[in-house]
């Protein structure tokens, strides 16, 4: 089915394209808008983006297949990515993946039995100091335990997705201002000249 965008989405794409020196430079954000509309990057999306940006369909296809953030097949309402790269794995990434697989009743790369989730494995999600972490749609959740992730998933399933936790991806509070420097230590006394030794007679 041909891609159909709303007037607002068309305007958004015009605005995005206007930010770049060439139309093709807008390929990544334009694909995001189209994926949000279509649910995944269909052949029609690729053809539409190629035509809109003056690119070959093979070039757009190359972008889509390079970046894992584009879905090349239909996905469920929410997509949960578990980071399984080294830093997260050292902090329990494997246990998080196994926990989610058990809860969803599916292996990674498949959809949950309740039909709400697509479960995927991610390479580094760029929050290595905050692992283990997952990405759910466009939000990141870090320093997870199975119980903490359950609470996040519960909230999504109730239709009240929690805000992204404070991490590298959000603005951290300003660091405290340094306090006044301590007073300078008193100067060390200059050693006096030792008395000269008595002369031998
Ligand atoms: S290894 Fe998981 S965020 Fe980098």
Task: Write the H/E string, N to C.
Answer: HHHHEHHEEEH
Q: Give Rg in angstroms.
A: 28 Å
CATH architectural label of the domain at 78-157: 3-Layer(aba) Sandwich
**Strand order, largest beta sheet:** 2-1-3-4
Structural class: alpha+beta
CATH class of the domain at 78-157: Alpha Beta
> In this structure, how is the largest beta sheet organized?
4 strands, mixed
Q: Low-confidence parts lasting 5 or more residues at pLDDT below 50?
A: none
CATH topology of the domain at 78-157: Glutaredoxin
Structure notes:
With 201 residues, the chain is an alpha+beta fold. α1 runs antiparallel to α2 and α3 (43-53) crosses α4. It is extended and about 110 Å long. β3 and β4 (139-141) form a beta hairpin. The model has no long low-confidence stretch (mean pLDDT 89). The longest helix is centred in the first third of the chain and has 12 residues, at 7-18. Among the domains are: 7-66, Arc Repressor Mutant, subunit A (Orthogonal Bundle), CATH 1.10.10; 78-157, 3-Layer(aba) Sandwich (Glutaredoxin), CATH 3.40.30.10. It has seven helices and four strands; from the N terminus they run ααααβααβββα. A four-stranded mixed sheet has the order 2-1-3-4, covered by helices on one side. It has helices at 7-18, 27-38, 43-53, 57-66, 86-90, 93-104, 146-157; strands spanning 78-83, 117-122, 134-136, 139-141. The structure holds FE2/S2 (inorganic) cluster. Residues 83, 85-88, 124-128, 131, 133 line the site of FE2/S2 (inorganic) cluster.
């Amino acid at each position: 089915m041909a891609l159909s965008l709303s007037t607002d989405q068309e305007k958004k794409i015009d605005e995005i394209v206007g930010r770049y020196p060439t139309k093709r430079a807008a390929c990544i954000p334009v694909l995001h808008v189209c994926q949000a509309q279509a649910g995944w990057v269909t052949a029609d999306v690729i053809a539409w983006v190629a035509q809109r940006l003056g690119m070959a369909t093979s070039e757009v296809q190359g972008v889509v297949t390079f970046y894992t953030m584009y879905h090349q097949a239909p996905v469920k309402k929410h997509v949960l990515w578990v980071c399984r790269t080294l830093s997260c794995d050292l902090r329990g990434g494997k246990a998080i993946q196994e926990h989610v697989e058990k809860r969803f009743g599916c292996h990674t790369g498949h959809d949950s039995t309740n039909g709400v989730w697509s479960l995927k494995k991610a390479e580094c999600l760029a929050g290595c100091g905050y692992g283990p972490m997952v990405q759910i749609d466009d939000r990141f959740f870090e320093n997870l335990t199975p119980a903490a992730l359950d609470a996040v998933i519960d909230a999504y399933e109730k239709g009240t997705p929690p805000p992204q936790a404070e991490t590298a991806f959000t603005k951290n509070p300003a660091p405290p201002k340094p306090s006044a420097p301590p007073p300078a230590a008193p100067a060390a006394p200059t050693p006096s000249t030792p008395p000269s030794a008595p002369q031998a007679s």
